[in-house]
Design brief:
The complex is a heterodimer. By secondary structure, chain A is of the alpha+beta class. Chain A has eleven helices and ten strands. Among the domains of chain A are: 82 residues, Butyryl-Coa Dehydrogenase, subunit A, domain 1, CATH 1.10.540.10; 152 residues, Butyryl-CoA Dehydrogenase, subunit A, domain 3 (Up-down Bundle). Chain B has twelve helices and seven strands. Classes of the chains: A alpha+beta, B alpha+beta.
């Protein structure tokens, strides 16, 4: 039994932790939150590029470092802990995942080195307003090499240079298209979200030049929808690590506060009302962490359980983070609900992470479908 | 990252598997109801004797004490493999889990020589006489009196919730020896021959009907001072050590009730061609919730085992397994009953085994949330020992026991 990260992976996590603690504490997320004009922290992003982090999972042949998913998982946990306001997740968990798993060698050769070198921020555009896409309900059309329609919300839409877009082709089949966002036929608009520390926007396409990712000679063997599912499953595991990092930070903050804050002549942490609440948070965090490890294992080994493991990791991490973030405010009392206290930063992030790649309800459906497939 | 045994672990697992497979034809119970309690106990003793001969009864103990000098991970591997069968070993769980390790730590050489091996072989069974009607979660509040008379102690009072007291040969017991001292300071720990005159054991019928629990009455029971474990009025640390032994038992996820696999198949069978059962969105959401919790516990367990495999002993965080499993058993069983409608309250045909039935599990879960530490006490333990939160203010800590209300 070796259900843990290796010593090398743990020291990568420590290294990530130290860098973020020194260079990207919560004041950085706060700067982006306070300044509507800033879509991300460009200076922190540039330092991450210099450290090679944008190429962490990109193979060496495409200019990256070529580490695996487990390395990305431990880094994601720290990204979540420090609420980093940079396009790490859009670029690595979604955009790169789509290219690595679906694109032709030519496209990979063209794009991935730019990502690794920090010259290109990427994202994935799939939502179309209220609801979540399913194969029969995709409005954006891909016709004769061009994209038409509207996608919103899209993470980092204002700063990404390229995107992978979920559309339907002329046969009404879902496909994933790659496109350069810096063209006239793409209109961007900023959207105001509950978590301004991670910017979101809308992308409208008026016949934008695009390329069907999976339609190349030889092909990847995956349909557009299968590729989209594969990217979502990977993203679910990676976001789960961001979520457990955030949940852990909330528990630590609430625990520390309850040891120091006195009321009725004693630390509030000595009251069972507080103790039991914090233990509930701790238990949810531990279960979420354990499930996230399972997701990491499935992702890293290419196990066929990935759809089940990813959905379980996602549901568990979403529950834990949202619970930890809301109870962190509760333990802090009135002060916890001020702009000045950091509690609301976690609350905002926990909510947007819970929604970004589909809500718990959606992922629970996947859990049960996978179980049914396995058992019946 | 993997779930695989190390080569040494795999080798040991194979050895255990082979040995258990040899035992199965005689000792594996296919249908528990076919045998009486006495028959199961006597079959269990036979199996246990063979197990002890291989050193499997206490894998981590040195060979000269009846173990096999193995690692904690090997102990887990043995348990994992044995759990795949239905051997009648339940009677020895508490005996070998708490009292016997305490005897090994606190008894004289002569006493150990007399008692350890017969217990390991299942020839003698030990019980743990801790809780009293007015002292459960607050173990420091026990009042069963032990009064010294020359080289003897005279015991008077009552114990309760003592599992298997009715079949036990000996028991470890915590008593009140000096009520003029504050509660934790006036306690002394002994072991006692359960056949002593003045001991009366009465099984308690539990809410769920089963009754391995007993209440035990002590009327002028005389025990020698040599049966004392630890100092006079120094029983509290020995009692705590006993409870700590419990914690090192790493429990697995399953924890009784209907398995998810069987539940999904059951719903598929009972509700085919309808809008309910597996086709009902509410039911599907519940199935996902059960699985997420179960998977969380299984994977948490895998993380504990990883630590164990690398030589670390589990800390107080291991208590969360029981906390989660008991609550999950209760809600999941009750959910399945809900899905069945009015028939959810009706037991299956008496010809069908009721082991792992969700209706049985639903009722038993209410007790499971209390036994071995209530949900609330476990939460206090985790809060104080894992999260480092300050202890509750104890208003009775420094007051003589006899002055307490």
């Amino acid at each position: 039994m070796n259900f843990d990260f290796s010593d090398d992976q743990k020291s990568l996590q420590d290294e990530t932790h130290r860098f973020l603690r020194d260079r990207c504490d919560l004041s950085v997320a706060r700067l982006v939150l306070d300044d509507q004009q800033q879509a991300y922290s460009e200076s922190v992003w540039r330092e991450m590029v210099e450290l090679g982090w944008t190429g962490i999972t990109i193979p060496e042949q495409y200019g990256g470092i070529g580490l695996g998913y487990l390395e990305l998982c431990v880094m994601a946990e720290e990204m979540g802990r420090f609420l980093v306001p940079v396009p790490f997740s859009s670029t690595l968990y979604q955009f790169c995942e789509a290219l690595l798993n679906g694109a032709s060698k030519t496209l990979k050769q063209e794009i991935l080195p730019q990502v690794a070198a920090g010259k290109l921020i990427g994202t994935m555009a799939f939502a179309e307003g209220i609801g979540f896409p399913d194969p029969d309900r995709i409005g954006v059309r891909f016709k004769a090499g061009k994209l038409y329609g509207d996608k919103w919300p899209v993470a980092d839409a204002m700063i990404a240079g390229a995107a992978v877009v979920l559309a339907v082709n002329e046969d009404n089949d879902p496909c994933l298209c790659f496109l350069d966002l810096d063209q006239e036929a793409v209109h961007r608009r900023q959207l105001e979200s509950v978590d301004p520390s991670r910017s979101q926007g809308g992308l409208e396409f008026f016949g934008a030049e695009a390329e069907n990712l999976t339609a190349f000679e030889g092909g990847s063997g995956k349909s557009g929808w299968q590729l989209f599912q594969r990217v979502l499953n990977a993203a679910a595991v990676l976001f789960a690590f961001e979520q457990i990092g955030g949940a852990d930070a909330c528990l630590a903050a609430a625990t520390e506060f309850s040891r120091e804050r006195h009321a009725f002549g004693r630390p509030i942490g000595s009251f069972q009302a507080i103790k039991h609440k914090l233990v509930d948070v701790y238990v949810a965090n531990q279960l979420a962490r354990s499930n996230a490890y399972y997701g990491a294992w499935a992702l890293a080994t290419g196990a066929e359980e990935l759809p089940l493991a990813a959905s379980v990791a996602r549901v568990s991490a979403t529950q834990a983070y949202e619970y930890a973030a809301s109870e962190n405010i509760q333990v802090h009392g009135g002060m916890g609900f001020t702009w000045e206290a950091d509690c609301h930063l976690y609350l905002r992030r926990s909510r947007t992470l819970a929604l970004l790649i589909g809500s718990s309800g959606l992922w629970k459906k996947q859990v049960t479908s996978e179980l049914q497939r396995k058992f019946v | 990252m993997d779930f695989d045994d190390t080569p040494e672990e795999a080798e040991f697992r194979l050895e255990v598997k082979n040995w258990l497979a040899e035992q199965a034809p005689v000792y594996n119970l296919k249908n528990v109801d076919d045998l009486s309690f006495e028959q199961r106990l006597s079959l269990g003793r036979e199996f246990q004797a063979g197990k002890a001969e291989r050193g499997y009864a206490k894998v981590t103990w040195p060979q000269e004490l009846g173990g096999m000098g193995g690692t904690p991970m090997q102990a887990v591997i043995y348990d994992q493999e044995e759990e795949k069968y239905n051997f009648p070993t339940l009677f020895f769980g508490i005996s070998l889990g708490m009292p016997i390790p305490i005897l090994r730590r606190f008894a004289s050489e002569e006493q150990k020589k007399r008692h350890l091996i017969p217990a390991l072989r299942g020839e003698e069974i030990w019980c743990q006489l801790f809780s009293e009607p007015s002292a459960g979660s607050d173990l420091g509040g026990i009042s069963l009196r032990a009064v010294r008379e020359a080289d003897e102690w005279v015991l008077n009072g009552q114990k309760i919730w003592t599992s298997y007291a009715h079949i036990s040969d000996f028991g470890v017991i915590v008593t009140r020896t000096d009520p003029s001292l504050p509660k934790h300071q006036g306690m002394t720990y002994f072991f006692v021959d359960m056949k002593s005159p003045g001991i009366e054991v009465r099984p308690i019928k539990q809410a769920a009907g089963s009754g391995e629990f007993c209440e035990v009455f002590f009327n002028d029971v005389r025990i020698p001072d040599t049966a004392r474990l630890g100092e006079i009025n120094g029983g509290w640390p020995v009692a705590i050590a006993t409870l700590m032994e419990e914690r090192f038992g790493v429990s697995e996820a399953a924890g009784g009730g209907a398995s998810l696999e069987n539940t999904v198949r059951f719903l598929h069978r009972e509700f085919s061609d309808s809008q309910s059962g597996l086709n009902d969105a509410c039911v599907r959401e519940k199935i996902a919730d059960w699985h997420v919790a179960e998977s969380g516990i299984n994977n948490f367990y895998a993380r504990l085992l990883t630590g164990l495999s690398q030589g670390q002993l589990p800390g107080p965080e291991a208590a969360l397994s029981k906390l989660v499993i008991a609550r999950k058993l209760q809600t999941q069983s009750s959910d399945i009953m809900d899905i069945c409608g009015p028939a959810g309250a009706i037991y299956p045909d008496s010809q069908v085994s009721r082991a792992n039935d969700f209706r049985v599990a639903w009722l038993e879960a209410a007790g499971y949330r209390i036994a071995g530490g209530t949900d609330e006490i476990l939460k206090n333990t985790i809060a104080e020992r894992v999260l480092g939160l300050p202890g509750d203010i104890r208003v009775d800590k420094d007051i003589p026991f006899e002055k307490l209300k």
